[in-house]
Amino acid sequence: MQALSLGVHIPLVCFGIAFPAILLFVEWLGIRTGDTLYRTLARRWSRVMISLFAVGVVTGTILSFELGMLWPAWMAKFGSVFGFAFALEGISFFLEAIFIGIYVYGWDRFSPRIHLLTGIPIAITGMTGSLTVIAVNGWMNHPSGFTMRNGQVTDVHPFTALFENSYFWHELVHMYLAGYIVVGFVLAGVYAWGKLRGRWGRYERTALVIPLTVAALAAPAQVVIGDWNGRAVAAEQPIKLAAFEGLQETTKGAPEHLLGWYNGSTVVGGIPIPDLLSILAYHSPSATVQGLDTVPPSDRPPVNWVRFSFQTMVFIGTALTFLGLWYLWFRIIRRRLPRTRWFFRALVAAAPLSIVALICGWITTEVGRQPWIVYNVMRTSEAVTGATGIPVGFATLIVVYLLLAGLVVWLLRRLARSPLELQPPAESVTPDVAR
Amino acid sequence: MSLAEFPLVLILAGLVGYSVLAGADFGAGFWTLPQGRLTDRVREHAHRAMAPVWEANHVWLIFVLVIAWTSYPTAFASLISTLSIPFFIAAVGIILRGSTYVFRSAVGTTRTGAAADVVFAVASIITPFALGAAVGGIASGRVPVGNAAGDLVTSWLNPTSAMIGAIAVFSGAYLAAIYLAADARRIGDAELEEAFRRRALGAAVAAGAIALAALPVVRDDAPRLYHGLTHGGGLACVIVSAVAGLVTIALVWVRRFGLSRVTAAAAVAAIVAGWASAQSPYLLPTYLTVDEAASPHATLISIIVSAVLAAILLLPSLSLLYGLLLGGRFDPGRTTDEQPEPRPVRIGRWELLVGLAATVFVAGALLNIFCETAWQRAIAVAALLGGIAGGFVLLAIPPEED
After folding, report:
1. Whole-angstrom Cα distance, residue A125 to residue B231?
2. At residue A427, does pLDDT exceed 60?
3. Which one of A17, A58, A279 would you mutate to disrupt binding with B, by most B Cβ within 10 Å of its Cβ?
4. Staple partner for A363: which of A309, B235, B272, B304, CB 3.0–4.6 Å?
């Protein structure tokens, strides 16, 4: 149930991280160039932003209920360690809610510069909010900053636990880049779809190029940051790394199988690439990689889940990188966009694929941590609620989320179809025709 | 006040904020129920007044939950597992309300909104009732310590819970009607102003009547709570609340809406304080005291730090938002028509700059792959992100073509 809610919430978080910054850039361009096109675009996107934010508020509230409802033992035991981060998250969320109201309802009510300023807190708080949540996740993967004494948590240092954690920074950068990639490709995908349907003017071209540029630059960078993540996992969570491959025994020069299936002792049916896992983990073809059999079976994660989502993420990420490089090549060398329809078809496909990669990445890190909720400290089964009736709640939640998803799609379609106000209302009050 | 009690003060302050602001928000939803001739105009007015602030009103609850689980993890885990059903109902209600807000803001005011309005109204009644019922469960001592240790049904379906839930619904309706009457006056709609004035008086009388009826019910059902509310500090709070409530009715009667907002909020604040006083020193009567439930010292300190931070950041922001709203800045027709001068952008030496951004990007990437220490890593990531930012600015303006 938590997984479902998080799965719904995470793409929305991406929009919280990346969308306000892109939006403000567009609005700033509008002020800098005096071109009303940018202003119209920013205005249009701000409607999308507040709709998504409202859904984010709702799913975020549900999550904070669920954290307590589903994992009472986890909260009771470790709430004192990471609760601080959620307190900061609450403040960020609060500020974001305040300023998003001012910003979206403040078009034409302030001077353009003041209006731009009211948007800046949204961009900052969107980042700090997710920053603190990632800090908690980093801590769950690499617990520190407290001492366990007779099963009780003592000697708590929340700040050390959360922000001086060696597991925090790479997760943070990885997630932020993912945010920009998802938002960039989703927005670009929407306008690429329009282009294939014949909607293609200066407005659409701008609306496609700006987010696509962000995503095309962030995708290759993500490959490098992903490598950093892989090395950190190898150092701190060797069993998770072994699960990426399904490596049974500790091996020198470990291979990585593309595709295939882990049958409980080995990987069958995949294409083996010698030494690849060693290179990924330690940058050396002869490095030794710890195998799954170094821990008892009860301490191993569900290997196929982890393998499959890890490989899907890497595969999609690589494809998106090539798509981004294709675009950058044309922009820099040829000074134009690619003209082939296949480029725009690829962009349309990239929109959902980027979200799939995001969720796969999250499954990789979360399921890879199983059976632990707090790595090597607390098992998930020890943390879960004793309340009955969870299946009923689960079913209700699925229905509600389906309704919510339907609503969002319907709204965005409606927003997309409503006529463009290329002339902002302020100008239409004093039309040139009347003079 | 001991360190252990400090977060409780924050929680109570958050609850007051939530009851007053989100209570009014729920109340505005209450008034979107079908109500004859004025239905459409009342609905429109309620939505327009609440749309810019509902998210901010709502986040108070998240604030309360977060402080609660950080400061008193055992108590939070116990009450949220025992009271999982009302909290779940409230959560679904919140989802439905949020959805209809989004729906309204995107659709505007059309006939298709009618079904959504009914959903909105129903969710606006169920949600405060469920939350009030959960409070009733805690106050009447039905939540023992442990993972879902209490009765999952009777912990919130009991006489005290029913009374507190009903009071929550009607006091929200009453707060909302007062705010909306004042809003109607500001935009100069005398008919709506009068309509909401009558609704405010009606809801206030209903809330007061339920509160009086609740007294004998609570005496039989939760004698300990009753004792707390009728002696000492609890009694003082109840008296303050009752007086503030009566003053509010009088102010609404004479159309002094501005001042009546303050006294109405004071009535709600006093009753929350009275509840806290009545069950002190317990957090979960009679199972867990505040001191027993509190987190370790370092965590409490960090909460105080974040509370100070919150006060510095949130109070000015909130007053800005409400100031703009109450000052009528978001009312229809209040627009400026300031437009920036057209100034075309030319980037000189574009090729050189693109080459520079690409070099920084690639250097950052290589350093990321081969770096060993944390410092090298920091430089590598900074270079990578710097390359992205530079490249973005250079490439963001689309080429003129096709």
Report:
1. 45
2. no
3. A58
4. A309
